[in-house]
Every structure is written in structure tokens, then in C-alpha cells.
Write a structure and sequence with these properties.
The complex is a heterodimer of chains A (310) and B (261). Chain A has 310 residues and is mainly β. Chain A has one domain: Porin (Beta Barrel), CATH 2.40.160.40. In chain A, 1% of the residues lie in helices and 56% in strands. Chain A contains 1 helix and 17 strands. The longest helix of chain A is centred in the middle third of the chain and has 4 residues. Chain B has 261 residues and is an alpha+beta fold. Chain B has one domain. Chain B is 16% helix and 42% strand. In chain B, strands 3, 4, 5, 6, 8, 11, 12, 13 and 15 form a 9-stranded mixed sheet that branches. The chains are: A mainly beta (310), B alpha+beta (261). Chains A and B meet through β6, α1 and β14 of A and α1, β2, β13 and β16 of B.
């Protein structure tokens, strides 16, 4: 069950400081959920001023789950707390192509029968390239559109714990132990201050060296945003839906029962920017979910981030 | 733009080349040698995690609190995906599961040929063929059974299942003892064989020890296909009810899952 949203939120979370241009909002949202608590749901929505803007930022996200071993009618529910601190950066390499990097550090804990189990460590590093296929150039058009496609790779820099894979939540990990491949699209439509960001992405998981393969994962999100500007600040409230669909995990090429699932979240957030800095926060609450045969339930997710425009 | 597309293509190509470097040491096709297999017997009561001296209400309204729960598991046979079977040597295939002693819940079977197994079968009790070998033919299991209180006497034979505790009902309002002991009677030997399909194949390898998690629902002994009213007689060690209880054992076990770690 790969039900952890990968917070590869590829946001250009920075505000324009270019004195020659009006704020030019460009939203990008990528939520790459991953099997291993590895990631975050992203705030997914960021905003940035200029094309080709670069940023480096830090983000904290928390995911709260509860799980049940599913063995007995009176099995207790135990809480699981996933925490991630992530450094991210987005750098334009050539015109219309930007490369983003996500370096997560995870510190997760879960209650077990006799106390607590903790895991922590470097997570799986992701590198993602996005290509701008289309973008409306002028403000004069009634709608502004932008469409991007991209691909990326997630490297097994986080340690995969085989013993945890056999527990009720196989995703209690800091890494999948596998090389995984991301394919992403993003579409943004704007009319004056109001916009909608729609994104889809698919993560192909491969078998790791313990012959465990997390299920492939499909993520989608739609987020409305509104740009409110003052002379010093830009404020962008956001409201939307985000969903994740997980395929079955495999061990030794045999299906691991009750590892597929899906979840739909409602999300609410904002970004606020001033000068080189922007701050964002968002929260996600599940609307509907069916994870690991009902033995794992998401309670909520939230995140905060601080970005610096280079 | 061509240049950029080339870059993207290069990233994808590099990525795929990493993928193809993944582990080729495939255990699936490697079924040489022998490994271990574990059977876990997890006691439940009508679906709930079983606990001693806890009140459980049966379908007939009787409330039971169990304080002894033991049974003999024997003659384990494993069926491979191709339909062939591996029979655990008879001399190493008698076990007592005693809820009170956690170490007995897990049976480790060594020297199992590497294969994908799809079924497990075992007997409850000691089979007649073994019993007919006489006291001297019983090896050390006889002593083990005596120590565990799972023998009446040599002539009366083994107790296959022992379930004891206290109960109340609408007619028995103060707690009274109940004892259910199965085994041979004058007319019936009462040994039965349980065959369980595995919901996940057990992949025995030199490097993989599968663990088959079996749920043993103790409620089914007296509250199964045949509902036994303890109020009508709370000491059952023979008589017409014993075959009914023996029949109930057929639906007492279920494989919940198989770990292949």
C-alpha cells in the first residue's frame, strides 16, 4: 500500500521580485504518493512569480494513520505517525525544462502492543524533469492555460525494512528499496485572479533486492486557487480534492493480499509570499478511503513549508 | 526543443537501464534443497482474540469462561502446487497446542523440500494406526501427552481436545464447571483430519521460512455446526455428544494468511 503521498509538490513557491513585471502566477502541483511513508501529500499547490524562477525550500509534513492487524474482531487500533522533513529545489536547466529534486528525511513512529516502534533516516531521493508543452503567453487572452508533462526517477536511498513489510502496514518504511519511475502531467487554467490546477501522475514501482514490489500508484488532484495581492504580499488560498489509487504489492512475484486500495482527500491551504520568501500551509482530510482491506485508515495530513527564491 | 526532448529521453533511458540492473537472483525458480515451515495456531473465540477467564456468549445464550484449552495436532501433510504431497515423518509429527504455553502455538517443521505449497492438512488427536502400536510404540510423545494431561490412561487413550471452564445459562445461574474432552469412545475413534487451503502460497526455500497463520476458533468446539447445550450436561467425555463435537472440529480451523519472510 502505497498510500503515502509523495510530497513532491513541485511548487515554485516563491513570489516575484522582478520589478519589471507584475506578479505572474504559475501554479504547479504534484503529489507523488509513495509506498513508504516516504512522502507527503503535498501541499501540492504552490505559486510562483516568474517563469524560470528557481527556489530552494524546506518542508515539514505529518501524516497520521491508524491501523489494525485485521486478525480478530477485537483487534485494537494503533496510531501511526509519519513525519518528514524535506529539502526541495527547482532549477530551470534549459528553456521550458525544469528539474526538481526532493531529499526527504523521515522519522516515523507507531504504537505497537508493548510500546512504540520508531524508524528514521534518509528517504528516497527523487529527481523530476518537467517540460512545458504549452503556455498562453499574454494576459490579454480570456483564459490562460499551461500544460506540462514530465518524468522522473525515485532512487532507493532510503532503507527498506523487510520485516516491516510483513506487518499490517507494509509502508511503515523510509524507502521502498526500489528504483521507481514517475510520469506526470499538469494542467493549469486561469481567469483573472482565479485558477484551477489539475494534475495526474503515475508511479511505476519495481522489485527491490528483497524481491518485494510495492504496487504502482496513480495520483490525481484538482485545486482551485485565488491570487490576492497587496503592495507587499501575495496571498493564495487554495481548496481542492486529491486522490490516490494503489495497486497490489508483490513479494517473490506473488500478490500480497489486501495491499491495494484507494483514498480521496479534501484539502485546504494557503500560500503567502513576500520578497524572496514564501510560506505555505495545508491540511488534508479523508473523504472516502479503502486502504489495505480496511486495516489502515488515514486520519489526516498537514504540512508547512518555507521557500526562498534564488 | 529537440535538444530538450533528447534530454528527457536520456533521463528515461538511464532510468530504465537502472531498472534492468535489478536483482536477478530469483527465488521463484530456485526450488532446490530444503527449508523450514512454521505453523502458527492462534486461538480465537468467535472471531475475538481468545483470553482465559473472559466471558463469551454462545449462540444458545450460555456464557462461558474458559480456563483450559489444549489439542493434539498430528500427521501434517503439505500439498504442492503440482498436486504432489510431502508428508512430515510420522515420528516428528505429533504436537500439543496448549493455549497457556505460548511456545506451543508455533510448530517449526524442518527439512521441508523447497516448493510452493498450496494446502496443509493435519489430524486432531492421535490416529488409530499410531495408537494401535501400543504403549511401547508411542515414542516420547506418550510422556509429553501425560505431562500435559492429555491422556486418560493407556487403555482409554489420548485426549484429542480438552476445553474446560465455567459457564452460566438461563437455567444454571450460578457458575458451574464444564469439561469437554474428546478422544476414542467404545464405538467411535473420533480422530479427524482437517485440510486447509492456503490463501497465499507458502514458498519454502532454503532462504525463506513461510509461516502459516492458522486461526483456531475455540467457540466452534461447542458452538459450531452442532450447538452443544452445557446446561444439559457439562461434562462431556463420551456419549452421543462426542461425535457431534468431533464433527464441529472440522470447521474450527482457517488459514488467515501466510507470511513468506
Amino acid at each position: 500500500m502505497l498510500f503515502f503521498q509523495f510530497g513532491l509538490a513541485m511548487d515554485k513557491d516563491s513570489i516575484a521580485t522582478n520589478p519589471f513585471a507584475k506578479y505572474h502566477l504559475q501554479l504547479e502541483a504534484f503529489d507523488f504518493c509513495d509506498a513508504c511513508g516516504c512522502s507527503a501529500s503535498g501541499g501540492s499547490m504552490g505559486f510562483a512569480s516568474m517563469l524560470n524562477s528557481n527556489f530552494v525550500g524546506i518542508r515539514y509534513f505529518n501524516q497520521s494513520y491508524k491501523s489494525n492487524d485485521g486478525l480478530y474482531t477485537n483487534s485494537p487500533w494503533y496510531n501511526q505517525d509519519f513525519n518528514t522533513m524535506q529539502i526541495w529545489a527547482r532549477i530551470p536547466v534549459v528553456k521550458k525544462v525544469q528539474v526538481s529534486t526532493f531529499i526527504p528525511y523521515h522519522f516515523h513512529s507507531r504504537a505497537i502492543e508493548n510500546g512504540n516502534q520508531k524508524i528514521q533516516g534518509l528517504g528516497d531521493i527523487t529527481v523530476l524533469g518537467m517540460y512545458q508543452v504549452f503556455e498562453t503567453k499574454k494576459d490579454s487572452t480570456f483564459f490562460n492555460h499551461s500544460f506540462q508533462i514530465g518524468t522522473g526517477i525515485k532512487m532507493p536511498t532510503g532503507k527498506f525494512n523487510e520485516a516491516n513489510a510483513g506487518t499490517v502496514n507494509p509502508s511503515f518504511q523510509v524507502g521502498t528499496g526500489s528504483w521507481d519511475y514517475l510520469f506526470a502531467t499538469e494542467y493549469v487554467i486561469k481567469r483573472k485572479q482565479l485558477g484551477l490546477n489539475a494534475m495526474l501522475n503515475y508511479v511505476v514501482k519495481t522489485e527491490n533486492d528483497k524481491q518485494y514490489r510495492f504496487g504502482n500508484q496513480f495520483n490525481y488532484a484538482g485545486t482551485f486557487f485565488y491570487l490576492y495581492e497587496t503592495s507587499k504580499y501575495a496571498i493564495v488560498p487554495q481548496l481542492g480534492l486529491a486522490g490516490e489509487v494503489y495497486g497490489t504489492n508483490y513479494q517473490y512475484k506473488q500478490k500480497v493480499r489486501n495491499t491495494e486500495g484507494d483514498i480521496l482527500f479534501g484539502k485546504l491551504g494557503f500560500e503567502i509570499g513576500r520578497d524572496q520568501f514564501s510560506f505555505g500551509a495545508n491540511a488534508m482530510l479523508p473523504i472516502n478511503q479503502n486502504l489495505t482491506g480496511g486495516n489502515v485508515r488515514a486520519n489526516y495530513r498537514w504540512s508547512v513549508n518555507l521557500n526562498y527564491s534564488l | 526543443m529537440k535538444f530538450q526532448l533528447k534530454n528527457i529521453a536520456a533521463v528515461v533511458a538511464i532510468s530504465l537501464s537502472f531498472a534492468s540492473c535489478s536483482n536477478d537472483d530469483d527465488v521463484n525458480s530456485n526450488t532446490l534443497g530444503e527449508g523450514n515451515l512454521k505453523l502458527e495456531f492462534d486461538q480465537i473465540y468467535n472471531g475475538a482474540d481468545f483470553a482465559f477467564n473472559t466471558a463469551y456468549t454462545n449462540s444458545n445464550g450460555e456464557v462461558v469462561k474458559v480456563d483450559v484449552a489444549k489439542y493434539i495436532v498430528s500427521n501434517i501433510v503439505l500439498t504442492k502446487m503440482d498436486g504432489s504431497v510431502y508428508t512430515v515423518p510420522k515420528s516428528e509429527s505429533y504436537f500439543i497446542i496448549d493455549e497457556e504455553t505460548e511456545a506451543t502455538h508455533l510448530i517449526n517443521l524442518p527439512n521441508i523440500p523447497a516448493a510452493d505449497y498450496t494446502k496443509v492438512s493435519f489430524g486432531i488427536g492421535v490416529d488409530k494406526e499410531q495408537f494401535d502400536l501400543g504403549a511401547t510404540g508411542q515414542t516420547s510423545f506418550l510422556q509429553t501427552a501425560q505431562d500435559a494431561g492429555m491422556m486418560w490412561s493407556w487403555s482409554a487413550g489420548y485426549k484429542f481436545v480438552a476445553l474446560e471452564g465455567k459457564f452460566t445459562s438461563s437455567t444454571v445461574t450460578t457458575e458451574a464447571q464444564f469439561k469437554v474432552h474428546t478422544g476414542q469412545t467404545g464405538n467411535d475413534y473420533n480422530y479427524n483430519t482437517i485440510t486447509l487451503d492456503l490463501p497465499d502460497n507458502a514458498l519454502v526455500r532454503t532462504t525463506i521460512t513461510p509461516q502459516i497463520h492458522i486461526m483456531a476458533d475455540l467457540s466452534k468446539i461447542i458452538d459450531g455446526t452442532n450447538v452443544i447445550n452445557l446446561s444439559d450436561g457439562a461434562t462431556i467425555m463420551g456419549g452421543e455428544k462426542l461425535p457431534l463435537i468431533t464433527a464441529n472440529l472440522s470447521n474450527m480451523f482457517e488459514v488467515h494468511h501466510v507470511h513468506n519472510d
